[in-house]
């Protein structure tokens, strides 16, 4: 038995996240997204993943996770605090541009709309352990629904 689609590609893969825009869930209706606030995460320090699991008979769960590492500045802390409050109040949709050029909407699905938006699930502040370390804030946003992320447009 041969499996198709598992051949090695001749092109070097391009992983990672190039850009993240965060939009309040109440402002996103699918299609062309409204302008969101672009987040200045540290270079090569953001990632997106989908974990697909069997949630029982007739149910499939997709867990969306977006992790960004930000500079631990006073401005960064203030922005994270405001985002956490927005996540508590209504949740957010992230328009994520992957390094490959693909653009996806996370926290929105054609089936459920913004019923299951992203929420802040973890925040880690770190000073580092040596003077050469860069102080950081690691922000984790998650949502769970039944659909993979698709392009917003």
Explain the overall architecture.
By secondary structure, the protein is mainly beta. It has a single domain, classed as Pnp Oxidase, Chain A (Roll). It is 10% helix and 39% strand. It has one helix and eight strands; from the N terminus they run E-E-E-E-H-E-E-E-E. The strands form two sheets. The chain has a four-stranded antiparallel sheet, with no helix packed on it. It has a four-stranded antiparallel sheet with strand order 3-4-8-7, with helices on one face. A hairpin with a 4-residue loop joins strand 5 (92-98) and strand 6 (103-106). The mean pLDDT is 85.
Number of E-state strands: 8
Helix content: 10-25%
β-strand percent reads: 35-45%
Structural class: mainly beta
How many domains is the backbone divided into?
A: 1
- Biggest pleated-sheet summary: 4 strands, antiparallel
Q: Judging by the overall fold, what is the CATH architecture? A: Roll
* Radius of gyration over C-alpha positions, nearest whole angstrom: 17 Å
Q: Provide mean pLDDT, rounded.
A: 85
Indicate the low-confidence ranges by residue numbers.
Answer: none
Global geometry: globular
Query: SSE string, helix = H, strand = E?
Result: EEEEHEEEE
The count of helical stretches stands at 1
- Spatial strand order of the main sheet: 2-1-5-6
What's the CATH class label? Mainly Beta
Straight-line N-to-C gap: 38 Å
| CATH fold-level name | Pnp Oxidase, Chain A
């Amino acid at each position: 038995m041969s499996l198709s689609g598992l051949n090695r590609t001749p092109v070097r893969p391009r992983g990672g996240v190039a850009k993240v825009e965060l939009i309040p869930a109440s402002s996103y209706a699918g299609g062309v997204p409204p302008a969101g606030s672009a987040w200045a995460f540290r270079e090569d320090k953001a990632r997106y993943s989908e974990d697909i699991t069997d949630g029982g008979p007739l149910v499939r769960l997709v867990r969306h996770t977006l992790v960004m590492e930000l500079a631990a500045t006073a401005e960064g802390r203030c922005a994270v605090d405001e985002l956490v409050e927005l996540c508590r109040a209504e949740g957010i949709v992230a328009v994520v541009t992957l390094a490959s050029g693909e653009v996806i909407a996370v926290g929105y699905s054609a089936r459920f709309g913004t019923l299951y938006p992203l929420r802040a699930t973890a925040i880690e502040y770190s000073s580092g352990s040596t003077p050469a370390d860069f102080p950081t804030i690691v922000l984790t946003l998650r949502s769970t629904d039944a659909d993979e992320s698709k392009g917003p447009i």
